[in-house]
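An example makes the point: we let one protein speak, the chain in one-letter code, the fold tokenised, and here it is:
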Amino acid sequence: MVNGIDRPLDLLNSAKGKEILVQLKSGKQFVGKLLAFDIHINVVLEGTKEVEDGEQRRSYGLTFLRGDTIVFISPSVN
């Protein structure tokens, strides 16, 4: 166990309510506050922004991202 994380979903659970970075298979990146997730890694983000080359491209607000489209999630974007 490292930092109280035993299983992969423990990392997401510790990131609830915090800003995360999500990389999709399409190459798009989204940043937003993690509100919820499930065992399929479907995620719900609040205040979602599409980011390209470190700069905001679009704002989406409340967003649902399907787990099968996600390449990785970074729980700390700061």
About this structure: The chain has a mean pLDDT of 91. The longest strand covers residues 55-65. The chain has one domain: 8-74.
